[in-house]
């Protein structure tokens, strides 16, 4: 209770609990002497203008000094008494301790301010949404994304209309699985990308430190609303870097064209689209004609310059949206969208003509430029990208076989396309056979026609197909030669033979054995192949004199200088050499002086008909005499009956080989510990 001047006339005992004073301590002292200096003006203003509530004036909440010197928050109400009251009491105030509530409010405000400052300082955008998508909270980074003045209370779909990363579908946060990231883009900012994570916002069963009654009240009032928290991180720079890296990974560094990996990926995507929506497109394989001449005569800098010029010409000759890719080396590819057969042929011919028109010179020398185009249509009838590429490649080889510099369309009823495509299928079958060791090693004995003993043999091969059937080399060797697989087959055969004869070579050497292994034209002259042969001899510790390498006359004559160096190196190792299929070209007699061979194998076509055709008989006899004069031994192939055998003996041919003398059998049956332990059986007199 207060006097007219405001001093305390009465204070109850509760003041001791709240402020630490005894009632007598406060009597006849003014209340303002206890009020915090910062609150005095507010208290005086409240006394003059404070709101009345039920006859009382609410002075608000302010701080009063505790006896120990700190301040306590109180909420104060004042009631004025009539002036005529005889007691001298002018006003009565009632004060309530609200210090605990203020401390809690300050703590909450501090925590909120800390949270606000933290969320505002981070670069990620943070938004809280209710179940309907209304924005409950947005930090500064989130607000900066919106064109509107404020986000709070707005529908997220209107304020920040996010789309998926391709800009096609609306982003629906409620459909995003928890703990998964998605890439989104903001409508109108298609070049900006955000990585968004979504977290569900749900009321807990109970809030710590609250009584069960308060928790129940919170849940009933849904004070903690359900909704979502979205965290969006701007990943535009990262996305751009990824695109740059992807661009580099998918682009040919020399020409700037799409590389093979990217091109095949694009074909796969187009195949999926064709299955859904149909359409007709064209794939063209482009192989430069005689590109090796530029590289070999003018150097690789000139070759690179030509490849760049070719790529530019291809890009400038196709329509916008068509794709130009470099598959490797001097091979390119075109993907022509939305065209039929006649249109594809016409457009490819235009590109072919543009390549022909290139004027390429290097260091004052002019080089002709042309290319072979193999084209295959891409529609629902094509079952796979591999089939499509095989058809285009096969069509390209048809052009090369027909003289290069042209366009060929692959069709199922075209004989040339079908043959080439069959060869292409053989490529994958042969690669699988090599990997799965389904190339089988056979051999056929070669008999000495003078003493009728057989201590020589030629290694032959067959292929066991996936269904178990045996395939003759006549069926797959042409494809292997065309697509460069013969060096791999040669290596496979040599390693298989060396591995088998290694433990038996002492007995083989004692029996004066010779094992003939064929080398393909692709292997002859290759320095890499020569090094591999040396390594195989060393790895399996094989005596080179055991081995006789056979090369065909055609392979030897294709590149005489390389063949000479290659064969001389094998000769220096200690190997014997045989020239196979000799006689297919009589002009080759003059080359015998240059080739360090030991044996001439007379082509079986002459031997087979030598008793019926005088010309063939003369060729066989002539080859033998020339070989004998040069100190070479001769081998007649395709000895198929007794009459031919007798005539060969009469001529003096050294060795014979054919079905009449011995059939081809697995190498392991002919050469084994058991067979070597048995004395060789003499050849029966025919």
Name some characteristics of this structure.
single chain; 686 residues; alpha/beta; Beta-Lactamase; Alpha-Beta Plaits; 8-stranded mixed beta barrel; 6-stranded antiparallel β-sheet; 41% helix
How would you describe what is shown here?
The structure is a single chain. By secondary structure, the chain is an alpha/beta fold. The protein folds into four domains: 14-103, Beta-Lactamase (2-Layer Sandwich), CATH 3.30.450; 122-240, PAS domain (Beta-Lactamase, 2-Layer Sandwich); 250-411, Alpha-Beta Plaits (2-Layer Sandwich), CATH 3.30.70.270; 449-458 and 485-677, EAL domain (TIM Barrel, Alpha-Beta Barrel), CATH 3.20.20. Helix 11 (300-317) packs across helix 12 and helix 14 packs across helix 15 (473-482). Residues 679-686 have low confidence and may be disordered.
Low-confidence stretches: 679-686
CATH architecture of the largest domain: Alpha-Beta Barrel
Record the strand order, biggest sheet. 19-20-22-23-24-25-26-27
> Radius of gyration from the CA trace?
48 Å
In CATH, the homologous superfamily of the largest domain goes by the name EAL domain
Helix content: 40-55%
């Amino acid at each position: 209770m207060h006097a007219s001047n405001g001093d305390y006339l009465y204070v109850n005992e509760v003041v001791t609990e709240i402020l630490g004073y005894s009632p007598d301590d406060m009597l006849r002292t003014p209340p303002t002497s206890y009020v915090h200096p910062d609150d005095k003006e507010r208290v005086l203003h409240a006394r003059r203008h404070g709101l009345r509530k039920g006859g009382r004036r609410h002075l608000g909440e302010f701080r009063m000094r505790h006896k120990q010197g700190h301040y306590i928050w109180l909420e104060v109400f004042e009631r004025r008494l009539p002036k005529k009251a005889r007691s001298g009491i002018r006003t009565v105030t009632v004060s309530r301790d609200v210090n605990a509530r203020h401390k809690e409010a300050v703590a909450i405000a501090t925590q909120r301010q800390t949270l606000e400052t933290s969320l505002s300082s981070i670069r990620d955008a943070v938004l809280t949404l209710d179940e309907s998508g209304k924005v409950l909270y947005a930090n500064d980074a989130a607000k900066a994304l919106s064109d509107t003045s404020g986000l709070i209370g707005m529908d997220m779909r209107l304020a920040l209309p996010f789309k998926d990363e391709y800009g096609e579908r609306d982003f629906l946060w409620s459909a995003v699985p928890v703990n998964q990231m998605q890439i989104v883009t903001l409508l109108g900012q298609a070049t900006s990308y955000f990585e968004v994570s979504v977290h569900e916002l749900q009321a807990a069963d109970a809030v710590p430190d609250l009584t069960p009654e308060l928790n129940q009240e919170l849940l009933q009032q849904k004070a903690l609303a359900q909704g979502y928290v979205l965290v969006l991180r701007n990943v535009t720079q990262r996305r751009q870097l990824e695109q740059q890296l992807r661009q580099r990974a998918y682009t040919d560094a020399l020409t700037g064209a799409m590389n093979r990996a990217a091109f095949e990926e694009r074909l796969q995507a187009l195949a999926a689209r064709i299955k859904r929506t149909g359409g007709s497109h064209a794939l063209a394989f482009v192989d430069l004609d005689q590109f090796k001449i530029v590289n070999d005569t003018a150097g690789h800098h000139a070759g690179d310059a030509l490849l760049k010029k070719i790529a530019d010409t291809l890009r400038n000759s196709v329509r916008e949206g068509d794709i130009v890719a470099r598959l490797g080396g001097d091979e390119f590819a075109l993907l022509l969208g939305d065209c039929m057969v006649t249109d594809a042929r016409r457009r490819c011919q235009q590109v072919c003509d543009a390549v022909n028109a290139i004027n390429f010179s290097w260091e004052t020398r002019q080089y002709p430029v042309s290319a072979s185009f193999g084209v295959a249509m891409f529609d629902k009838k094509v079952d796979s990208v591999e089939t499509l590429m095989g058809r285009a490649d096969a069509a390209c080889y048809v052009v090369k076989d027909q003289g290069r510099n042209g366009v060929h369309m692959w069709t199922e009823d075209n004989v040339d396309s079908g043959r080439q495509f069959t060869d292409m299928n053989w490529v994958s079958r042969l690669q699988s056979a090599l990997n799965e060791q389904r190339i089988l090693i056979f051999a056929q004995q070669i008999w000495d026609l003078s003493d009728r003993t057989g201590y020589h043999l030629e290694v032959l091969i067959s292929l066991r197909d996936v269904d178990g059937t045996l395939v003759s080399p006549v069926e797959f060797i042409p494809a292997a030669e065309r697509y460069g697989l013969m060096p791999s087959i040669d290596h496979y055969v040599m390693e298989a033979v060396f591995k088998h004869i290694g433990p038996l070579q002492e007995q083989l050497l004692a029996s004066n054995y010779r094992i003939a292994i064929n080398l393909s034209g692709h292997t002859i002259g290759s320095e890499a192949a020569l090094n591999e042969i040396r390594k195989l001899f060393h790895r399996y510790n094989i005596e080179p004199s055991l081995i006789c390498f056979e090369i065909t006359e055609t392979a030897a004559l294709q590149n005489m200088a390389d063949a000479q160096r290659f064969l001389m190196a094998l000769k220096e190792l200690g190997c014997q050499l045989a020239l196979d299929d000799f006689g297919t070209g009589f002009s080759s007699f003059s080359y015998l002086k240059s080739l360090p061979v030991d044996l001439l194998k007379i082509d079986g076509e002459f031997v087979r008909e030598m008793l019926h055709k005088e010309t063939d008989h003369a060729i066989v006899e002539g080859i033998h005499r020339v070989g004998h004069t040069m100190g070479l031994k001769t081998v007649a192939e395709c000895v198929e009956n007794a009459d031919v055998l007798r005539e060969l003996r009469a001529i003096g041919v050294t060795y014979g080989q054919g079905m009449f003398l011995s059939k081809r059998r697995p190498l392991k049956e002919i050469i084994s510990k058991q067979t070597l332990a048995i004395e060789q059986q003499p050849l029966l007199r025919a």
